[in-house]
Amino acid sequence: MLNRLLGRREEERAISFQTLFASGDSLYMTTNAGTPMDQRLSLEITTVYACVRLISDSISTMPMDTYIRVDGDRRAYRPRPVWLDYPDIGVTRIEHFQQVLVSLMLDGNAFVRINRRSDGEVLGLTVLNPQKTQVHRDGSGQIYYTYETVARIDASDMLHITELRLPGELRGKSRIDLLKENLGLASALQEFASRFFGNGSSTSGIIEWPGNLTREQAKNLVEAFEEGHKGLRRSHRPGVLFGGATYKQTTVPPNDSQFLESRRFAVEEIARIFRCPPSMLGVTEPGASSYASVEANGIHFVMHTLRPYVQKLEEAYSRLLPGVAFFRINIDGLMRGDYASRVAGYGSGLQSGWLSINDVRRFEDLRPVDGGDTYRVPLANVDLTAANLGEIERKTAIAQRLIASGFDPQAVLKFLELPTIEHTGVPTAALQPVASINPINPADVYDVAQRDVNVTMPEILVNVPQPVVNVPAPVVNVPETVVRVNVPETKPIVRTVERDEQGRILHIVERVEG
Fold this sequence. Notes:
Elements: H1 2-6, H2 17-21, H3 39-42, H4 46-60, E1 64-70, E2 73-76, H5 82-85, H6 93-107, E3 109-116, E4 122-128, E5 133-137, E6 143-147, E7 150-154, E8 158-162, H7 175-178, H8 180-199, E9 205-208, H9 215-229, E10 246-249, H10 254-258, H11 260-274, H12 294-317, E11 326-329, H13 332-335, H14 339-352, H15 357-363, H16 389-404, H17 409-416, E12 493-499, E13 505-512
Antiparallel strand pairs: 1-2, 1-11, 3-4, 3-8, 5-6, 6-7, 9-10, 12-13
Helix pairs in contact: 4-6, 4-11, 8-11, 16-17
C-alpha cells in the first residue's frame, strides 16, 4: 500500500520448490497460530502427553489372557501363547501394548507385524512405525502393506487397527492431523507464556530519548538495557539511564499476560479430544469432575474412553488364536467400586445363586476354601440342587391335611406326585422327647422296626381266696318331723257397680266386709 502511494515498484520474487522447502520447515503442518504441529510435536503439549500416558498406561497394565468356550462356559486356553508374555525381543507385554496404543492415538493406525515360523506358528509381534507403513489394494482386491524396504506384506501377516476410518479409505484418520488448529493454539499459548518469562517477568516498558536516535543508536540502547534486565534471573535489578533518557513502564496483569483463561480452555479442548476427564489430568478447579464421586467418574472413563480401545485390541489379537479361542483384557479391576459396594454386590450374587463363595474369593485374590464352589438359592440359602424344597414343603403340608381328613395316604401321594417314604415307627415329638431318640439308629430306643416279634411269656398262676365280708345292718333313728304353716286370714271383698239410665258404668266401689 505504501509502495503504491510513494510510487515505488513492488518487489517481485520467484517462488520455487527450494524457497518453500529448502529451509526444512513443514509448511503444510503449520497452523494459523503460527506454530508447526505434527504427531511428534503434539507430545510436547502437556495435556496431550498426559492424555496419551493416561490411556496407554491404563490399558497396557490390565490383566490379559486367552480363553475358549466349552458348552457356554469360559475356560482358560492353554498352553498360554508365548507372544502374549514376550511379544518381541527386548519388549515386554506392557511396552508392546503401550506402543500400539500410542500409535493408535497419535496416527490413528497401529501396524503390528506378525512373525511366523515355517509351520505358521506365531513367533513374535513387532509394532511398526505408522508413518513409514503404507496400505495398498491390488487388482484382485486383496490388501497388502509396504514398510520401508519391504516390498509386500500380506494382510495375514499384519494386524492393522484403526481408530477412525472414513468410508472407502484404507487408513485411519489421525486426530492430530484433523485437529491440528486446536493443538496449534494450545502450543502457541504455551510458547507465549514461556517467552513472557524468558523475555522479562516484571519489567516491560518504553525508553524515551529527548532527541533523535539513529537505528544503530536505538539498537545499542535496547541491547544494553536488555543485557542487564532480560530474563528471569535478571528481573528486579535496578537500571541506570543517562543522557536524559526516561523509562516508562507498561504494566500488564499477570493473568492477562499469560492467557490463563485461554490456556484452561485449551486443556479442556484437548481433554475433550481424547475423551479424558479433566479431573484425571490434574485439573482441580470446581466443575472439573462431572460426577459426584470419584468412583462414578472412573467408571465413566472406563466405559466411554478405555472400552472402545480394549474391544479393538481384543478383536485384532483374537485372530492369532486357533479355532474358537479368543483374547480378553480384564477391565473388571477398574470397574470395582469401594469395599462397601463390592460387599453389597457379592451378597446379592451369593443370595441369587449366580456366585459361589470361591468366586467371590477369587475376585478378592483370596485362596479358595473347601465346599466353596456350591451355588445357593435365595429362599433358604441351601444348595442349588435342593431349590425345590419349598415346593416339597408346601405339598407335604397339603398331604398332611388330606390324610388327617381321612383320605388314603397312597392316593394322596400319587395325586401330589410325592414319592413313598417308609416310616420307622418312631413316635412323634408330642409323644416322646426328641432328645431321647438316636437320630442314627432310632431302633435302639424303640424296638418298633422289627416286623416279626416272638415273645415267650411264662405261665403265671395266681390263687386268690374268695373274700368274706360281714357288714352289720345299720340302725338309723329319725325323729318325727312337724311342719307348721301360718296362713293369714282372708276377708271377702264386695264390689258395687253404679250405672246410669242407659246402663253405662258410672262408679265401681270396693269394700271389705267384716
